[in-house]
Every structure is written in C-alpha cells, then in structure tokens.
C-alpha cells in the first residue's frame, strides 16, 4: 500500500477525514477493543503532556518539550510495534513511551532532571532519549545491522523531527540502511518547525518522504494527525523490516501545537490563524468522531476514559516526586566509565563546595 502513494506526485496517505469518515479500502480494520485501547492511549498522552507543562510552570519539572499535536503519530506508530522491536526515540515522543508501557513516573523523573528516569526497565526495548538532534539515527541503523547479522525477525524504529533531516547523521544513517538493507523504520515527525525555523527553510525538497528515493528504499508521506494512516503505514513498514524487506522512511505530516519547549515562545514566529487552522485538524478529535460513527464512543465512556487518564497521571506524579532528588554529583556519574582528569578535578571542586554548603 505504501508504494501506492508517491511523494513525488504530492500523494499523501490519509485514511480518516476531519469528520471521522474513512477512505474506502484503506481502513486497517482494527478490532473494536483495540480501537478503544488506542483512544485511551491518546487521551492519556494528552493528559500526561498537559500535566508536565503545569509541573514545569510550578517549578516541579525542568525544561520540557510538549507533544500536543503529535499524539496520533506517536500512538499510531507505537501501536504497530510488537515485543522484540526496538525504539530509538527523540525528545518529543511521550505517546510512544505510554503506548509501549514505559512507566510514566520514570518519564517524569527524567524531565525532573534525574538520570535514573532514563533507565529503561527490563523487557522494554527503548534506547535512551537522544537530545543531540539526529544522533539516534546512526545508532538505530547500527542496531538494525546487528539484528540482521543475528537474523532476528525484528524491526528498529527511530523517530526524529524535520530539523534532524539536515544533519549529517540523517544522511549517513539512511544511506547505510539502504546499502545494507537493514530492518529500520525511519519516522520523521514533520511538525513544520525546528524551533523557529519553518519547514520551507529546512530543505528545498517538496517532501521529506521523497528523500528515501535517493537512498534506494520506499518513502511515504502520511497525515500525521490521522492515527489510522500512521498505523497502516507503520504496520506495513515494520512488517517489511521484520521480513527482510529492508528500510522505509515515513514522513508524518503534522504540527506542533505548543511551544518548542517551555523556554520558547512560538507566538513570536507563527500566526494565531495558522495555529487555529491546525486546531481544526486535532488528531484526537478526529479519532473520537470515527469511534462515534462506529458506536464505540459516547459521553459516559469519555468520562470514564478522562477519569482513568487523570488517575494514571496523578499516580505517576506522586511516585516521581516521592523519589529522592538527584545528587549534584550525578552530573559526573554517567558519561565515562573512567573519568578524564579534568572532570575528576571539577568533581573534587564540586564536592569541596558541597561539603561547605552541607556543613
Ligand atoms: C546537534 C544539535 N544541534 C542543535 C540542537 C538544539 N536543538 C534542540 S531541538 C532543535 C530543533 C529540532 O527540530 P526538529 O528536528 O524539527 O524536532 P522538533 O523539535 O520540531 O520536534 C534544535 C536545533 C541540539 N539539541 N542538537
Ligand atoms: Mg520539527
């Protein structure tokens, strides 16, 4: 199906329209129970994201990169992954963590500044979040090559933004993946901005999906606010990767509804009208309308889902805040097995300073 949508002709995979209607022949046909599970993940993601912003404003959480607007891309993609697959994430992937079962308390703990929150629990295949833009891409390709050597029937997913596609790491990673036909699924969350830089200034390509053509593998642009489109493309790309079909690039065409991070003010570089236009295309609303048409959504169900989401979020906050704060010495603890002398000297300085402070 991916091959039917040619990015060079401006074709984009869309399954759901804004009123929740389904394009004929494109519905991935998920069972009712799974559709509801997906809806519950979307609602939890939005609730957990909104809570993180509040915590940041109250000084209870550090700088935070909000996910509002990305929920369908995140949850749709992660819902198509199966145990054994790997995720090499970036810093705006909350819905993927929630879908894959990463403890939300750990996720908050990380954004509260504690490295311990990054230690993925056993049984979950999630690499540490990459803050240097694009650096996860070659790592994911390396994992793909390892899986291929070991003949493991798994797919390696990596996510990144439109801004990451200007990094050397993107081009080196995709080139390598094409030559060695590694089992990678590259997912670009094209949210139209890299901080304040608009997508049109990022690349002269008409789409990001078409970049895959130059590397010799399929690329498809999907409506990233349409969870069924994201799911359908991801399911096919992941299946192909697991079965020796090589890599795929998926461009999820979406919009960041909030600021880049809590230290940004997006009102300085984009219009209210543009944001309102995207509000109309809200990914959760669209899926809710679809569920309504199928008789799977009503007000009492909504209440129940919202209540469960609030409980899920509040429990995670309480758990994260009950943990001891990170020790200042942690700044030095996790980068080197054996610290270089200049850092050792800095650590000694810090310890002397803390010794005085604590006395
Ligand atoms: C190598 C590197 N350069 C610059 C930065 C600073 N920086 C953080 S996020 C960002 C923009 C990323 O934009 P995009 O890839 O589109 O992802 P988005 O934030 O839009 O989800 C930049 C420039 C960084 N973290 N790493
Ligand atoms: Mg971006």
Report on this model:
By secondary structure, this protein is of the alpha/beta class. Helices cover about 45% and strands about 10% of the residues. It has 13 helices and 7 strands. The protein has helices spanning about 30-55, 70-80, 95-100, 105-110, 135-150, 170-180, 200, 210-215, 225-240, 270-280, 285-295, 300-320, 340-359; strands at about 85-90, 155-160, 185-190, 195, 195-200, 220-225, 250-255. A 5-stranded parallel beta sheet has the order 1-2-3-7-6, sandwiched between helices. Strands 4-5 form a two-stranded antiparallel sheet. A hairpin with a 2-residue loop joins strand 4 and strand 5 (about 195-200). Helix 5 packs parallel to helix 6. It is globular. It starts with about 30 loop residues before the first helix and ends with a helix. Bound molecules: thiamine diphosphate (TPP) and magnesium ion (MG). Magnesium ion binds next to strand 4.
Short synopsis of the structure:
The protein has helices spanning 32-57, 71-79, 94-100, 104-111, 136-149, 168-180, 199-202, 211-215, 227-242, 272-279, 283-293, 299-322, 341-358; strands spanning 86-88, 156-161, 184-190, 193-194, 197-198, 219-223, 248-253.
């Amino acid at each position: 199906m991916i091959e039917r949508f040619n990015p060079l002709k401006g074709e984009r995979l869309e399954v759901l329209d804004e009123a929740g209607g389904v394009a004929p022949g494109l519905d991935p046909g998920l069972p009712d129970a799974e559709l509801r599970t997906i809806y519950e993940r979307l609602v939890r993601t939005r609730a957990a994201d909104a809570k993180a912003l509040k915590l940041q404003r109250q000084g209870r959480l550090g700088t935070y990169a909000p996910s509002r607007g990305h929920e369908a891309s995140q949850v749709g993609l992660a819902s198509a992954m199966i145990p054994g697959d790997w995720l090499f994430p970036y810093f705006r992937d909350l819905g993927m963590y929630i879908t894959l079962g990463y403890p939300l308390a750990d996720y908050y703990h990380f954004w509260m500044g504690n490295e311990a929150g990054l230690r993925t629990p056993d049984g979950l295949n999630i690499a540490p979040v990459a803050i240097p833009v694009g650096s996860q891409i070659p790592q994911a390709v390396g994992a793909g090559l390892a899986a291929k050597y070991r003949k493991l029937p798994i797919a390696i997913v990596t996510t990144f933004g439109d801004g990451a596609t200007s990094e050397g790491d993107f081009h080196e990673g995709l080139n390598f993946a094409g030559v060695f036909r590694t089992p990678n699924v590259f997912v670009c969350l094209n949210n139209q901005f890299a901080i304040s830089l608009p997508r049109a200034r990022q690349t002269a390509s008409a789409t990001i999906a078409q970049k895959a053509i130059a590397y010799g593998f399929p690329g498809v642009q999907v409506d990233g606010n349409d969870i069924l489109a994201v799911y359908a493309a991801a399911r096919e790309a992941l299946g192909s990767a697991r079965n020796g079909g090589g890599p795929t690039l998926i461009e999820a065409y979406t919009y960041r509804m909030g600021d880049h991070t809590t230290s940004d003010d997006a009102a300085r570089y984009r219009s209210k009208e543009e944001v309102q236009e995207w509000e109309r295309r809200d990914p959760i609303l669209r899926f809710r309308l679809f569920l309504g048409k199928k008789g799977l959504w009503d007000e009492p169900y909504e209440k129940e889902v919202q209540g469960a989401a609030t409980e899920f979020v509040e429990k995670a906050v309480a758990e994260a805040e009950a943990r001891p704060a990170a020790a200042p010495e942690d700044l030095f603890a996790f980068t080197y097995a054996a610290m270089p002398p200049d850092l050792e000297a800095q650590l000694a300085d810090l310890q002397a300073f803390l010794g005085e402070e604590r006395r």
